[in-house]
Amino acid sequence: MTVKLPIYMDYHATTPMDPRVLKTMLPYFNDSFGNAASRTHSFGWTADAAVEKSRETIAEFIGAKSGKEIVFTSGATESDNLAIKGAAEYYQSRGKHIITTVIEHKAIHDSCKRLAKQGFDITYLPVGENGVLDPEVLRAAITDQTILVSVMLANNEVGAIQPIAEIGKITSEKKIVFHVDAVQGVGKTPFNVEEMNVDLASITAHKIYGPKGVGALYVRRSKPRIRLVAQMDGGGHERGNRSGTLNVPGIVGFAKACEIMHHEGAEENERILKLRNRLHAKITDALDETKLNGDEKKRLISNLNVSFAFVEGEALMMAIKDVAVSSGSACTSASLEPSYVLRAMGLDEDLAHSSIRFGLGRFTTEEEVDYVADLVIKKVKVLRDMSPLYEMFQEGIDIKSIEWAAH
Ligand code: PLP
After folding, report:
1. Which domains are delineated in the chain?
2. Would the CB of 215 count as within 6 Å of ligand 1?
3. Per-residue confidence (pLDDT) for residue 66, from 0 to 100
4. Pairing of strands 326-327, 323-324
């Protein structure tokens, strides 16, 4: 069987929409186009009923007690902003200390940076070389001023799964609000807000085969009831937590995506895990000097992040242009910065620059995995053949010990 090019292996960035999701959404663009906030006629009632049903489906998916705990947003960036800034503002009279980790998404880091400018004190906890936070490190960082802890369920670069249940035990004992950015992990690793004592959780549809531009923030309503200061002023939608006309087709699609994951996730994850392991095995069997970034066991089934020593990730990406992956370098400035996540895990700059993130998903096939593995192996060999450093390494020269002349 021939594979169709290009091949998509960047499922952490976004996912294609499941055709069943699209089909569910379509009537809400035309036939049932009403504004869910229109209380005076059947167009509004139909839209509202669809939104309320969706709330229940999404709540069930994450183990929430009620659909009332779901606040719809434009995506996880907004959910993260609302959780961090909204909780900080509401609880600031109790203290101004917030704890998070060095590997969170920018939506968390930048929200914290803004709060720091307003006088909040932010602690960024380190993670181990495997990308996983030690809950005892978190416990030790808590002070009597700590009001909020934010830790992601799974990292978007290396797939490292964090000990959310253990952290939830600590934060609930200490009566500190606990936010989880569950974007990458939900549906792929166990996540249950009740069982894990999570107070706030961000999720987004486009990472689980739903549409882009729709997300949710779970806000606990009991034991304890969590309050937020809204960040968007307007009509007071979403119980005053987030004003703005709801994206009804998006919300209906989001719920359908959750429902599919809920029912088919277990089987699907097993299949993806096998494919991911197949890709990794093929690469490591054929190539020396590769490094798996992130914990081997506590990692997303869909994630493979590998450093190919002596190869520039960017060069490798250009060499495999028909395969969509991402590299450990971020084009955030004029120069290529190595990923802050990989650096936080102790990788040196060279290895961080040589990393590639493969993200597999629902529509990945075995043929695609084999094609990608063969292509990557071939191109890494070509690039290494051109590398004087690799040649020196093969001759047994310790590259790190070389003092390069500076002119
Ligand atoms: N948090 C994590 C961990 C993510 O991976 C992403 C998306 O890349 C986001 C938040 C932002 O989500 P959205 O694209 O819905 O704004």
Report:
1. 7-13+265-401 (3.90.1150.10), 19-260 (3.40.640.10)
2. yes
3. 98
4. unpaired
